[in-house]
């Protein structure tokens, strides 16, 4: 009879684990949102929800432990049967995590092993979630796919032609508005200069006005070409550095964590799941895998934020030169160039770091 009851009990326990985990996740999300966006009262109410987060987490872990224990009992109580070469029984005892000095037997040894196996499974699960967010792209793949390449048609290496066309429509509209504002502003400034009582002050005003007109025309006309040259230079340097990474690692077998760091193509999920930094199947591998997945996810967020910022900067570029129209805040143009150079150079800096890592791997 236990052959039917224990699998049913295991299913119910897994169902309870999923419900408890969902409750903890939802309550934790509400707490985080209230702390970030709410006031003092909302934060105090959010802290009261922490007990539900703790309760849901404890219930989910308890249900997981009991579900594994029911599987252990089902395996222990099942009659000994000669199995084929490949065991298809649903009640196989999972391989134990290799821990130094872990040779205990019986229920105590089983509980210890199940605790570490649960840690191993949870770390692997969350690591795979973070990798899935990035599309299983390594840092080398992110750097290669965020610069211009002749093989794809993305503008600035990150914008599809349709997106670029929409950005240019808005930018050209802003060009026209800035041009109209410039004409009106220059006429008003010219009237003020002409009505000035001092001829020296009027002469100085005309010189400043003409200088602003020339600078506005030159900057609005030449900036798109300079931006294209800058992007081409950064892209060429980045691809050259990634090529040097390939040269330094050509004699190495890019498997495991080295492939997860240096590969220029999206990774196989099986490779991500099974890479090992330490020998055996220790829990340290899973913890390291989770930490590396989080770091890789943070780098992916940086590249995502880079796309957003570049889209805003390129689209609204004419507005940053409005200082030449009003005669004030001309430093906005310099600030625009500093931001553009900083964000364009991110893949180049990342490729340089990968080159340094490849040199150390080859030593």
List its salient traits.
363 residues; mainly alpha
Give an account of the 3D structure:
With 363 residues, the chain is mainly alpha-helical. The protein has 2 domains: 2-77; 140-362, no CATH class. It has helices at residues 2-37, 40-48, 50-77, 106-133, 139-144, 161-194, 199-248, 257-262, 269-274, 283-315, 323-326, 331-344, 346-362. α1 (2-37) packs antiparallel against α3 (50-77). The protein is elongated. Mean pLDDT is 75; it is low at 81-104.
Strand proportion, as a percent range, falls in under 5%
The count of strands amounts to 0
Series of H and E elements: HHHHHHHHHHHHH
Structural class: mainly alpha
Instruction: Indicate the low-confidence ranges by residue numbers.
Output: 81-104
Radius of gyration: 31 Å
Number of helices, counting only DSSP H or I runs of 4 residues or more: 13
What's a concise summary of this model?
The chain is an all-alpha fold and 363 residues long.
Secondary-structure blueprint:
Elements: H1 2-37, H2 40-48, H3 50-77, H4 106-133, H5 139-144, H6 161-194, H7 199-248, H8 257-262, H9 269-274, H10 283-315, H11 323-326, H12 331-344, H13 346-362
Helix pairs in contact: 1-2, 1-3, 3-4, 4-10, 6-7, 7-13, 10-12
């Amino acid at each position: 009879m236990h052959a039917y009851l224990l699998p049913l009990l295991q299913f119910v326990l897994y169902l309870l684990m999923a419900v408890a985990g969902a409750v903890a996740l939802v309550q934790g999300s509400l707490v985080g949102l209230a702390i970030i966006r709410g006031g003092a009262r909302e934060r105090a109410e959010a802290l009261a929800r922490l007990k539900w987060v703790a309760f849901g987490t404890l219930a989910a872990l308890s249900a997981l432990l009991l579900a594994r224990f029911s599987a252990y009992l089902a395996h222990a109580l099942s009659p000994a049967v000669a199995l084929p070469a490949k065991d298809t029984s649903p009640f196989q005892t999972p391989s134990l995590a290799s821990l130094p000095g872990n040779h205990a037997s019986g229920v105590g040894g089983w509980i210890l092993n199940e605790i570490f196996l649960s840690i191993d499974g949870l770390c692997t699960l969350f690591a795979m979630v973070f990798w899935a967010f990035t599309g299983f792209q390594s840092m080398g793949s992110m750097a290669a796919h965020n610069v211009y390449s002749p093989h794809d048609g993305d503008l600035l290496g990150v914008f599809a032609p349709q997106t670029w066309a929409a950005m240019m429509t808005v930018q050209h509209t802003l060009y026209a508005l800035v041009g109209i504002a410039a004409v009106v502003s220059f006429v008003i400034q010219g009237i003020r200069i002409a009505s000035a009582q001092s001829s020296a002050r009027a002469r100085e005003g005309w010189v400043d006005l003409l200088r602003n007109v020339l600078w506005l025309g030159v900057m609005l006309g030449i900036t798109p070409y300079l931006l294209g040259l800058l992007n081409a230079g950064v892209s060429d340097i980045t691809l050259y550095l990634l090529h040097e990474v390939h040269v330094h690692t050509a004699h190495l077998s890019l498997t495991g964590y080295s492939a997860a760091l240096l590969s220029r193509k999206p990774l196989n999920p099986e490779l991500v799941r099974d890479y090992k930094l330490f020998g055996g199947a220790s829990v340290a591998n899973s913890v390291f895998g989770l930490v590396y997945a989080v770091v890789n996810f943070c780098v992916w967020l940086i590249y995502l934020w880079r796309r957003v910022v570049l889209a805003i900067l390129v689209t609204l570029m004419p507005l940053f030169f409005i200082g030449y129209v009003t005669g004030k805040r001309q430093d906005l143009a310099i600030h625009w160039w500093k931001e553009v150079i900083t964000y364009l150079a991110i893949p180049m800096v990342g490729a340089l770091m990968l080159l340094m890592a490849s040199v150390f791997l080859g030593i």
